[in-house]
Amino acid sequence: MTNTGTVVNDLAGRAAVGTTTFSLASWGVRVLARKTAGLTNASLKFGFTSATAGSWEYEIAAADIGTSWTLIERVALGTAWGVDGKLFVQGIGPGVNGEQIEVALVEPYDPTSRWADETVWWSRPGLPREVDMTWGPVTIASGQGQKVRYGFEMGDRFYYVTDRSVWVTQDNGGEPGQWPLELVADGVGTPSFNGVGEGADWKVIAAPEGLWLFTGSTVTEDANLAREIKGLWSRIAWEQYGHLVTVRVMASLRQIWIGVPLDGATSVSHLLVLDFSEGFSSGLSSGGVGRRWSVWTIAPTAAPLEFLDANNERRAMVAVGGKTLSLADGTFADDGAGYAFAWEGGPMGPDEGLALFRKLTFSAEGSGLLTPSLVRAGGQLVTFPSQTLYSPRRGDYALLASVTDERVGVRFEQAATSGAWVRIARAVLSWMPRPFGNRRPYNP
Questions:
Q1: DSSP letter at 70?
Q2: φ, ψ of residue 229 in degrees (nearest 5)
Q3: pTM of the prediction?
Q4: Residue 44 near residue 60 (C-beta atoms within 8 A)
Q5: Average pLDDT over every residue of 296-320
Q6: pLDDT in tens, 63-110
Q7: Degrees to nearest 5, angle at CA 183 with 179 and 186
Q8: What is the pLDDT of residue 14?
Q9: Is the CB of residue 408 less than 8 Å from the CB of residue 376?
Q10: What's the mean per-residue pLDDT of the chain?
């Protein structure tokens, strides 16, 4: 057994590293240890002793310590903190000749405000299990209470993402702890360890304020891809369950799948899907060409996955309710159950004044019923009778209307019926300037 000795100095200072809220009534001990493979009938004891506050100890069996470095954290329940205290570590035998437990770190920590959340540990090059305890740790936004949630490499730089900022560093030939660190984006971050999706030369970051497109430089409001769904985005339970949000870029589909807890849900309840097959620009400002959002009523129990199958074809899969579902062409149900469909375009109309919207013409094929509507500027729906769908299609649908408003949108809906589907090829809304004045004319 190897005993690394007793820590006696600067306990109060070590406890305060990275936090200003260390509580004398809430604390614990953190140990980093590993054992040799042949050690079985032994244990490791560590703890705290103080002349003024008493003592506390914890013993862990060798069977629960890995042969690679194992981080062990235990809260000292029922024991007050004393600044005159000493930490100790002790090997308990009988042990086996030639076998040992190594301890690289013994320190106090605050379980209510984990300063370790702002520390990233780098391994030695080519040795992922070997962490240098002096030069390996890198502290991000030291003392600001931020929590590191993700890291990625882009170009020749490495980026750290905390819950509210993005930082960049670059290898300068020294140890990671000596690399320069620079703030790139303040106020942009994610509360989730799975809150960043990776594209080829861009990333997306899910935050309470929106979904941010990040290309390596300062982020502006134009980079918020969720601007047109602010109402929907605000329904995500960010404060309580934001750490559950998952983001995956499905490259073959040119889509981003975001698992979120909506409307008070305590677990992921929906997928928000961003289709960027026509680019990342907003369709509201580019004639309908650009990104498109949709809401899938799927409650995944794990992050979505995209991979190459045995036929070298990309497949998109998601775990739901103990099953793994695969996205497949020609399937119009989720595990046999139908799902509702709705599509809504951006508002159309004159640049100023009122318009009379007179006719909706569209081309569609499918199965089941399709319900078209016009969406007024205030959000109210003017709903047409449901139309029966056919495949192959039987000509265009032409529906007369008499709606006066500044601008209106077009909406199509289909109820959750198994086997129902629709493919809309074209939709045209006819309108003219309102033929009546808005005010009584002036009488001389």
A1: E
A2: -125, 40
A3: 0.67
A4: yes
A5: 79
A6: 889 888 888 888 887 666 666 778 888 888 776 778 888 888 887 776
A7: 155
A8: 34
A9: yes
A10: 83
The DSSP 8-state label assigned to residue 191 in this structure reads: S
Edge-to-edge strands of the sheet including 397-405? 397-405, 355-367, 421-433
Radius of gyration of the chain (CA): 30
Tell whether the torsion through CA atoms of 392, 398, 399 and 403 is positive or negative: positive
Distances from the Cα of 224 to the Cα of 44, 71, 90, 154, 163, angstroms: 51, 38, 54, 20, 16
CA–chain centroid gap for 29, Å, is: 31
What does the H/E/C string look like for 380-439?
CEEECCCEECCCCCCCCEEEEEEEEECCEEEEEEECCCCCCEEEEEEEEEEEEECCCCCC
Tell me how far apart the alpha carbons of residues 3 and 92 are, in angstroms, rounded to a whole number.
10
What number of CA atoms fall less than 13 Å from residue 59's CA on the CB side?
Answer: 7
Prior bond of 347 cis (ω within 30°) = no
- Residue indicated by tokens 């040795």: 127
User: Does pLDDT of 55 surpass 90?
Assistant: no
Q: Are strands 305-308 and 314-320 parallel, antiparallel or unpaired?
A: antiparallel
220-227 LR contacts (CB < 8 Å, sep 24+): 225/274, 225/280, 225/291, 226/293, 227/282
Instruction: Find out whether 387 and 416 touch, Cβ atoms under 8 Å.
Output: no
Cα-Cα-Cα-Cα torsion 9, 12, 18, 19, nearest 10 degrees, comes to 170
Asked if the model's pLDDT at residue 255 lies above 60, the reply is: yes
Mean pLDDT of 343-371: 91
How far apart CA 298 and CA 268 sit, in angstroms, is: 9
Given a contact cutoff of 8 angstroms between Cβ atoms, the answer to whether 228 and 293 are in contact is yes
Which of 121, 94, 90 shows the shortest CA–CA distance to 106? Answer: 90
DSSP string of 341-395? EEEE---B--SSS-EEEEEEEEEEEEESEEEEEEE-TTS-EEEPPPEE--SS--S
Measure the CA–CA gap between 305 and 314, rounded to whole angstroms.
10
- Is a pLDDT exceeding 80 seen at residue 444? no
Half-sphere exposure of 395 (CA within 13 A, CB side): 2
Task: Find the length of the chain.
Answer: 444
Q: pLDDT digits over 326-347, tens only?
A: 777 777 777 777 788 888 888 8
pLDDT band at 369 (very low <50, low <70, confident <90, very high): very high
Q: Hey, which bits of 127-245 come out as E strands? A: 127-131, 137-139, 148-154, 157-162, 165-169, 181-186, 196-198, 203-207, 210-214
Round to whole Å and give the CA distance between 431 and 43: 81
